[in-house]
């Protein structure tokens, strides 16, 4: 199966950052000179607004700032972001960005002027004087505010999920619309027992770690988190992306591999290797933006109810992954999986029984 390229993903992120910072850089002349008296607009200031000058200096500067911002975002470890607050991450990224920007300005100034034979002491004196000018103060203030704004937008988008913020801003789901989607309800097995044994604080920490471990698997399989509900997570795909490479099933088995790779950690800290069970269904659902005090994107339809009820059959049938006939029809051509009939089972809320199938990796089912 073709794996999703992290290089391509990071390249798209870099291009987005460069684009945002070019726009921000092109706005700087307005920020810098707005409100100045007509007498101040000398020839030198008019040159600042020359299209060629703007293209060379501001577009180039914006591209460099975008690259710098991307690098700083990448080098901050994921683990550090998980353990810190929303505001701390924004302030940390802004501080590092402004600090590195100052170092870049100093380095470029020194290297350029020393190449022309100027003495270091003279350059340093000029640099210190420049730090006291309104030009430098406005530049640094603008860069800091812009960095804080971009960090806030990206962190907010991260909290809501990929693409959700943009869809809400554009009002895509202001009115209900139909989409064909796949849903998986993933639930921690024996959660009540674990909660009683560990206590609610430690159990919550266990769930945090389990859901953190979903991150790379979600990215790899193009899944979108719809909801976290207690010890359960609901993940969704547009139909095409969920079927592609068997993503909706790969999600479950790849996640299980991640958990098993970290089994020593889970056993050492919690005395258990988390095991998840899941149910899948697909079909047309209504999607709309709901709420006033708290707004979010909500899905409505029988597909979600069916997927949840199918997951509820896992314990009774001794299976970890159950799917509907709708899902089977989409993925039965993939030779990786062994699909077996569980039965035509009545589900709560359904007028007619539903055909349910179990899924296992073919090599596991033959062990």
How is this fold's topology laid out?
Elements: H1 6-33, H2 43-48, H3 51-75, H4 78-83, H5 86-115, H6 120-131, H7 134-160, H8 164-169, E1 177-188, H9 191-198, H10 200-212, H11 215-221, E2 224-229, E3 232-238, H12 239-243, H13 247-261, H14 263-270, E4 276-290, E5 296-300, H15 302-311, H16 314-317, E6 321-324, H17 325-331, E7 337-345, E8 354-361, H18 362-365
Parallel strand pairs: 4-6
Antiparallel strand pairs: 1-3, 1-4, 2-3, 4-5, 6-8, 7-8
Helix pairs in contact: 1-3, 1-7, 3-5, 5-6, 5-7, 9-10, 11-13
Question: How would you sum up this structure, described in words?
Answer:
By secondary structure, this protein is α+β, with helices and mostly antiparallel strands. The protein has 2 domains: 6-160, no CATH class; 172-365, Nucleotide cyclase, GGDEF domain (Alpha-Beta Plaits), CATH 3.30.70.1230. 60% of the residues lie in helices and 18% in strands. The chain has 18 helices and 8 strands. The chain has helices at residues 6-33, 43-48, 51-75, 78-83, 86-115, 120-131, 134-160, 164-169, 191-198, 200-212, 215-221, 239-243, 247-261, 263-270, 302-311, 314-317, 325-331, 362-365, and strands at residues 177-188, 224-229, 232-238, 276-290, 296-300, 321-324, 337-345, 354-361. Strands 1, 2, 3, 4, 5, 6, 7 and 8 form an 8-stranded mixed β-sheet that branches. β4 and β5 form a beta hairpin. α1 runs antiparallel to α7 (134-160), α3 (51-75) crosses α5 and α9 crosses α10. The longest helix is centred in the N-terminal third of the chain and has 30 residues, at 86-115. The radius of gyration is 27 Å and the shape is elongated. The two termini are 22 Å apart.
